[in-house]
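Researcher: Can you fold this with NAP in place?
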Amino acid sequence: MVERTELWVNRKDLRATKIVNDTTPQLAEGEVLVAIDKFALTANNVSYAVTGDIIGYWQFYPAEGDWGKVPVWGCADVVESNCAELPAGERIYGFFPMSSHAVLRPGNITAEQFMDFAAHRKALPSLYNAYRRTRAEPKAVQDFENERCLLFPLFATSFLIYDYLQYNALFGASQILIGSVSSKTGFGLAKMLFDDPSIGATVIGITSAANREFVQSLGCCHATMVYGEEEQINAQLPTAYIDMSGDGRLTAALHHHLGDQMRASIMVGATHWDQQHKQEELPGAKPEFFFAPSHVQVREKEWGQGVPMTKAMAASMQVTDAIVQIMQVEWLHGAPALQANWVAMLDNKVPASRGLMVALAEQGA
Ligand SMILES: NC(=O)c1ccc[n+]([C@@H]2O[C@H](COP(=O)([O-])OP(=O)(O)OC[C@H]3O[C@@H](n4cnc5c(N)ncnc54)[C@H](OP(=O)(O)O)[C@@H]3O)[C@@H](O)[C@H]2O)c1
């Protein structure tokens, strides 16, 4: 048993948090204890909390009463093991709580990965239950450990949307609008579309005034607009809208402006998590929710198991290479710093150019 530090979030009031210090439980047969020395914090984690009851994100690492543990993408070492096939010393990457330690029950163990077979996770999307054994991976991948936590889960989604658009022949669109384009998922998608000459559509990013310069520095859009400038968009062109913001006002404004030329309206995220409201019937295509694990399943039937994520990883590496000098990685050490930045993230006080990495365990960074 070792000392453990966690940040718990109130599921009914996301700004209310508490730091919980305790000791890790005794391991049962087949379980391992992992020390999580790094994880990323982005608006995606806020969305996990916002949709925690609908999609089940609170169920990965249950807490007590109204409290929940927000899942994050991170790296960890196995520090104690009651599982012969996964000994202490292994390095792993995957879905963890905002915590210094976690207990997993490895199953389906191969040289490359394993699943967490904990009973309470069985019904949850399998994508999140898979852990990579990183030492089995090429050195080039191991060298991108921080980027893998901070960027790859989001760029993987960018790739899946990029692929989904092509799978649907861009829905006939000649311009693609991306809402909250300064988000990693947003600019990752913009960059993949912009850098692919076969796409042949104009990419227009929509963002806040504060993040416009950052988006422009990424060289990922043909044009960048600030919220409120939607009237400037050419309403004569068939258009696909990919929304990372979840901002109901923006969605309504774009649908009313474009009318029948809005050929697809794809809701991916909710970075503007407190700006959602029940939507009236809108002109143009009916907004549809995009859930990355569902598109993975579609493509796996055609391409084979694991192939979509391998392609997503390659695309993520390419975008990472192009932007890594522009994104400033900033380390948060200890639970109080995480607590403060969780609230800053909720309050839109983290500029797009700051990529937050967290180290709760002493040896982090
Ligand atoms: N459906 C899926 O399968 C799937 C998968 C992955 C991610 N996503 C979603 O994609 C979205 C982007 O995630 P990310 O991790 O890439 O985001 P991120 O990089 O952390 O996004 C940062 C940007 O989000 C906006 N923002 C952040 N907090 C805000 C707040 N409190 N109020 C208003 N705007 C705020 C700002 O952009 P602007 O100024 O440009 O608005 C900010 O630059 C999330 O909602 C995430 O859940 C969905």
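Model: Folded with NAP in place. The mean pLDDT is 95.
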